[in-house]
Amino acid sequence: MITETSVTVETNAALANPLGLKKIHHVEFYVGNAKQAEFYYRKAFGFSRAAYSGLETGNRESTSYLMRQGNVNFVLTAAMGPEHPAAEHVKQHGDGVKDIAFYVEDADHAFNEAVRRGATPVIKPHDWKDEHGIVRKAAIATYGDTIHSFISYNTNNGHNYSGPFLPGFVSQPVDGEGVGLMLVDHIVGNVELGKMNQWCDFYRDVLGFFRYITFDDKDISTEYSALMSIVMSDGQHNIKFPINEPAEGKGGKSQIQEYIDFYRSAGAQHVALLCRDIRHTVGMLQDNGVEFLRVPDTYYEELRDRVGEIDEDVEDLKRLGILVDRDDEGYLLQIFTKPVEDRPTVFYEILQRKGCKGFGKGNFKALFVSIEEEQRRRGNL
Ligand code: FE2
After folding, report:
1. Distance from the alpha carbon of residue 238 to the mean position of ligand 1, in angstroms
2. CA of 20 relative to ligand 1 center, distance in Å
3. C-alpha 255 – ligand 1 centre gap (Å)
4. pTM for the structure as a whole
5. 22 C-alpha vs ligand 1 centroid, how far in Å?
6. How does pLDDT run across 235-274, given as a tens digit for each residue?
7. Ligand 1 centroid distance, CA of 25 (Å)
8. Sign of the alpha-carbon dihedral angle for 351, 355, 360, 362
9. CA-CA distance, 294 to 338, in Å (whole number)?
10. What value, to the nearest 5°, has the Cα angle with vertex 86 and ends 102 and 75?
């Protein structure tokens, strides 16, 4: 029995979790004006404000709002002065993702093991406390200026925390009208030309992730907007990080290169948010003024032939602009917003899975033709 077990463990090396990652704890955005970003995420995307840190709570360096919907936790942070790192981050990148933070079994172990495996340290493990208890926190670097924090609490070594979110935050509930967003499905990183494999190796060697799917330029090349992509995943498929790099198009600029030019480095390109009823969710988001990419109506004429029977009415999908793709196990419905800041950088994907574990490969071509049209309007093709 013992032998059998160890064989199983070895052959399931992909299931190893060397850093003890449990889940994505939150995604922190550095923004120019957190108060206005809070309003946008609440009124447009239906998040509720859950907690706050700022002058009134004794934080004189920065202002942060915790926005929550389902199991999605976004922190919006703005600098109160030029000394705070958010100021420089916004100067360089515009509003963007700073931290994809993990809840871990033990932040010290996660940090030490990550660094031993080759990660660049950013924040050494330290106690972070307020009257609600102690959190242990550390962080390592990933692509661009983006980091992965490791956060642990409620462990058996004295780091217990019972506050509303993290130390320094007070509960400050302001309800948004939820649109049914439930969970972060994946977060895509755009990296520089020739760097995709290096960053995939980082997720494999440091975080113990494995290669889930690879897309090459045969899958996702249109006339201009070529890219290559590898999806890295943890062993439980809870955390999926596709990594994109620009590929040579036919004379135009890859959408990935456009992002990198405006973000001025590698960075997080889109956050995909899972919902249970995409027609309902997208209908509400559109009513709230969220702008989505549209594909030509001809997409829907060919849809049934391409994906077969689906539960949804194609006319509904066409009206809302929702895309469909199928794999062996089922199908998915997805739609992409336009960038949500002035620079053509970060955007969102809204996604419903009906068995399909893919990423919408069958939609890449239609989608990228639409993205190129946007790029052309921006003078960036
Ligand atoms: Fe995606």
Report:
1. 15
2. 25
3. 14
4. 0.94
5. 21
6. 988 999 999 999 877 667 889 999 999 999 999 999 999 9
7. 19
8. negative
9. 10
10. 40
| Gap from CA of 270 to ligand 1 centroid (Å) | 7
**Does residue 365 carry a pLDDT above 90?**
no
- Separation between Cα atoms, residue 182 and residue 202, nearest integer Å: 28
> Taking ligand 1, which is a single-atom ion, which protein residues have CB atoms under 5 Å away?
272, 349
Q: 130 C-alpha to center of ligand 1: Å?
A: 37
Enclosing domain of residue 114? 18-174
Residue with tokens 């899975």: 353
Domain boundary among 133, 149, 174: 174
Question: Could you give the CA distance from residue 42 to residue 184 in angstroms, rounded to a whole number?
Answer: 17
Residues 163 and 233 in one domain: no
Q: If you measure from the C-alpha of residue 115 to the centroid of ligand 1, how many angstroms do you get, rounded to a whole number? A: 29
Does 295 lie in the same domain as 277? yes
Specify the number of domains making up the chain: 2
Identify the CATH number of the domain in which residue 216 sits: 3.10.180.10
The amino acid at 331:
Y
